Amino acid sequence: MLVSVIIPNYNHAIYLEQRIESVLLQTYTNLEVIILDDLSTDNSTEVINRYRTDVRIKKVIINDVNSGSTFLQWQRGISEATGDLIWVAESDDWCEPTLLENLVPAFEMSSCTLSYCQSYCVDGNEIRWQSSSKFLQEYVDGKTFIRERMLMHNSIFNASMVVWRRTHFMKISSEFANYRFCGDWLFWIELCTVGDVFISGKCLNYFRKEGTDVSSVAYNTGYNFVEELTLADLLHRRGIMPREVLISSAQRRKELFEQRRSLFTNGVCEKVEDIYARIGL
After folding, report:
1. Torsion angle defined by CA atoms of residues 257, 259, 264 and 266, in that order, rounded to the nearest 10 degrees
2. What is the pLDDT of residues 179-225, one digit of tens each?
3. Using CA atoms, how far apart are residues 12 and 41, in angstroms rounded to an integer?
4. pTM surpassing 0.90?
5. DSSP characters for 60-106?
6. For residue 228, which of 281, 150, 172, 118 has the smallest C-alpha distance?
7. Residue range(s) defining the domain that contains residue 73
8. For the chain, how many structural domains are there in total?
């Protein structure tokens, strides 16, 4: 199976060589690489240009205008991909050489929609924590996976840990691109509605969380509450999230929001309150 590796980058020149090298050093070699740069203001283009002559680099796209959205960049990369499988390898992450070797065989089962491994969370040179799985490997029915692992929080917390089937992308909506922070959460849930999930217990991915990443910005500004609540309401209206789970999730987030609301702008607070009113809390 051909794997299309999409590397979306914005201002990660300092990490980009390690990212690209960790992709090119994969022991699974049937891959094409698509690099996208969202008009970086650092020397990312200089780093990218070093790899243009590598035959595995199928395409390099440097935007003329900054899109302002990770998920719009995902869409652009997906539109260029020709592989059976897609791996969005975030530009500030890196991985073990055997990541694809461990995740791709899962797709021999035709019902498999996505395959993911465990990850280390890295801050500088320090491993802050790592995810884990009860089993070395397991297949889980997609709808069961959503119900047990994706409603209260996003168990697939980093795109670089996941490989997924491109044809299944054609079966889901493009609504994930309307989100700035939580689009991946909706993306994984929609993929899981059309197939099964393979989980590897091996820790093969490293993702950085240093306070300037997208999720940290969302948390610091309060927009995580806006998007998480909007998503929960959407999932309920689609019949994916039961009413009792919606209320439980919203109440838990409301407690956290009230603890931090003094740090947020009036505009953010008003948006959160409007969503709570719509939900009925």
Report:
1. 80
2. 988 999 999 999 999 999 999 999 999 999 875 566 667 777 888 89
3. 10
4. yes
5. EEE-SS----HHHHHHHHHHH--SSEEEE--TT-EE-TTHHHHHGGG
6. 150
7. 3-214
8. 2
